[in-house]
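The freezer alarm interrupted the setup, so I double-checked each line after restarting. Inputs confirmed:
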Amino acid sequence: MSLRQILGKIGLWFAVFIIVSPAILFFLWMASLSLKFEIDNASYPPVFIPEHFAWKNYADVVASNRFLTYFVNSLIVTGSATLLAMLVGVPAGYGIARMAAHKSAVVILIARITPGLSYLIPLFLMFQWLGLLGTLVPQIIIHLVVTVPIVIWIMIGYFETTPLELEEAALIDGATRWQVFRHVALPIARPGLAVAFILAVIFSWNNFVFGIVLAGRETRTLPVAVYNMISFDQLSWGPLAAAALIVTLPVLLLTVFAQRQIVAGLTAGAVKGG
Amino acid sequence: MSAVTQTTPAAETDAAPEREWRPPSYWPFVVPALVVVLAIIIFPWLFTIWMSLNEWKVGSPTIFVGLANYVRLPTDPRFVEAVGHTIVYTALSVLLPLIFGTFAAVVFHQKFAGRGFLRGVFIMPMMATPVAIALVWTMMFHPQLGVLNYLLSLVGLPPQLWVFNPITVIPSLVLVETWQWTPLVMLIVLGGLAAIPIEPYESAEIDGAGVWQMFRYITLPLITPFLFIAGMIRMIDAVKSFDIIFAITQGGPGSASETINLYLYSVAFVYYDLGYGSAIAVVFFILIIALAGVLLYLRRRTMWTEIGGGA
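Predicted 3D structure, all chains:
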């Protein structure tokens, strides 16, 4: 290896280090905050690795009387919104791709660029009139605003790339379009289904703005619950950071383990105009 | 819509073999989603427009006021100020991620050990729950105990008030936004880099071009379409940024970081002035649609870039 190559290698690693360190340092600091007692969190200069780990921060968060409720709320809202979106969005993506009805995708585009708050004003009134506030139903419905466009958008892209020949052959052999979809198109599109599912789950799980307006004391999802902790326990950073980490940990794990799907979905969705 | 009634699946396959075969309609696949989209996207929009023409406050009767809510907008100093904040916030939140994201993409385009894993780590900020991140940034911005001021002191810089100073609050929030969204720009540009053939670089190397020259005269022109797209997406997202600003400053101190979206929230769900809030939502939407129009136009002009889209 020549000197120039070695220098190039060192330069590359230095660049990689510079690029990745803000993300790594941030999450390490988050973990550090969550594992420190108040004394360590309030000390200056800051302590990075404390002498005693405050595992009790996590225990406190999990044991606090409503945490389980909020966790279950998040599961129900994200689970329902994602499954419903898959149920209506996957066939829709298929139909739009096969009809080459690209104009209809503009509606999806509009949905993606509209600020979530705009939906909240009219839907908030609707839910009030229907007497649904105080249940999880409004949040499940409004999370569809996030999940349905993601699923349709990604599935359009996927079905556009799957081969038509098999489907045509099946149609000519007398299969109904539903059979073709169910037994020919769907199995081929399985990687696309995974991408749509994962992204819908993540963006629904992370959603905050719908919850702050629609959630009551009993119907908060985790992001809203964590936000509410700020105003009450402003000074106890340890449990607060622990709660934040617990909320986002499923997403972080998904990001690392399903990285390929996420990257595929984001670049497809993004480059295609969202 | 008429296509739904045109062909019924059973009749087509069994009963009428002598009729000319027609490809089946795909409308039934779209109808359920259409219903959902009508209910949760189209209907709310129409209703919002209707509400914006009324004096609509929670707890008092609604009165039709025509365009009065819209006339009020340009004379509302808080709204005008919010527009200014939004422009500054958006411009910075587009430019900085574009610059850093391009640099990161060039680096991740190289081959090195652990690239896949590190790319996963690199995109964590944009996937993580925004409120959770915002909470930790709030602690890091803390003037006395925050780690950022400690880092500044290490390099000999004076401590800052960060989000507690009206002058530095927007740059501080942009710092978070940039940290969070540089990965998206990186991914888009990386898709562009993957589509560049290797030949130009080979001949440039023979001609003795340096790394910077190759980037400036080969890479940059070829990824420009991707930079446009990334910039547009960033613009749309930055304009409507909410979670980070709301969780860290709630628009403060005072109203120093109040963007249109934050103001919209206050009007609609703090003052419950739903009519005026709807008018803000409509104007805000028109603004974003104008940006999206540019995006669509650019997308059409750069169709070929989709080669890299599935990466």
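Quick read of the result. Chain B has a mean pLDDT of 85.
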